[in-house]
Amino acid sequence: MTLYMFLGPTLRAHDARALLDAQVLPPAEMGDVCALATLPEPPRGILIIDGYFDSRPAVWHKEILFALSRGIPVWGAASMGALRAVELRRFGMVGVGSIYERFAAGALNDDDEVAVAHAPAELGYRPLSQALVNVRFALDLAVERGVVGPPAAAATLEAARRLFYPDRIWPAILERAARAGLGEGARRALAAFVAGEDVDLKARDARALLRTVAALPELPAPAVDFAFERTTLFERMMEREVPLRRRALLERAERAARGG
């Protein structure tokens, strides 16, 4: 049985494979989880790290419930996986990491916190912007280490929050914060700090998920206490979308097996 992970800009595929023996798939989109859940050989588990939400339809909650109802463990972290794990934790999906915990506790609320722009598959889904949750993490560390004070960090966070997610890169964030009153000394200090420190909380959480799963002999079966209901919309997706997604995922797996 195969373990599958949906991965994109959060972590490079070869770094993920170094931590966990699993089939790496592109960011999850509508139909992908059902496509895996209906394979002739059911997955050993499904790990969701990254998922589409803008350019393509996002993975449905309903299809994760479908996989769980079939006894397939579904775990998530870092990005779309953390969001879905919080939303479906009472139905048996498992979340890992600081971002998951912050959403579960209500300290974070907006999906926008984990959104990033990224390059296409041909360029390895390289992130092209900063996730707001990473900006928060960086600023918390900067305050903790005395790089800047809380007022400067708060002003910088607000500047980042007001930017549309594809525009959140550090130069733009700091420039906007400077226009709002951030001093030149604080701006330079923050620029040097984020350039020299590991402030990627999403990547940290992704690695935590993979290490956690790698340490387990088997993923435990999900604790399911609900009856799955097949709605008209669900049946339509199963009929129209899932065969296409299954074919695409299997073709990608075959290319990966050939080294392509």
Describe the structure.
- There is one protein chain.
- 48% of the residues lie in helices and 7% in strands.
- The chain has 260 residues and is of the alpha/beta class.
- It has two domains: 3-111 and 202-257, no CATH class; 121-201.
- It is elongated.
Q: Layout of SSEs?
A:
Elements: E1 3-6, H1 13-19, E2 23-25, H2 32-37, E3 45-48, H3 61-69, E4 74-77, H4 80-87, E5 94-96, H5 98-105, H6 132-144, H7 150-161, H8 170-179, H9 184-196, H10 201-214, H11 232-240, H12 242-257
Parallel strand pairs: 1-2, 1-3, 3-4, 4-5
Shape assignment: elongated
Report strand order across the widest sheet.
2-1-3-4-5
Distance between the termini: 22 Å
Rg from alpha-carbon coordinates: 19 Å
Number of domains: 2
SS element count, helices: 12
Low-confidence stretches: none
Binned, the helix content reads 40-55%
Largest sheet features: 5 strands, parallel
How many beta strands in the DSSP annotation? 5
**Helix and strand pattern:** EHEHEHEHEHHHHHHHH
Instruction: Give the overall pLDDT as a whole number.
Output: 93
Structural class estimated from helices and strands: alpha/beta
Beta-strand level of the residues, as a percent range? 5-15%
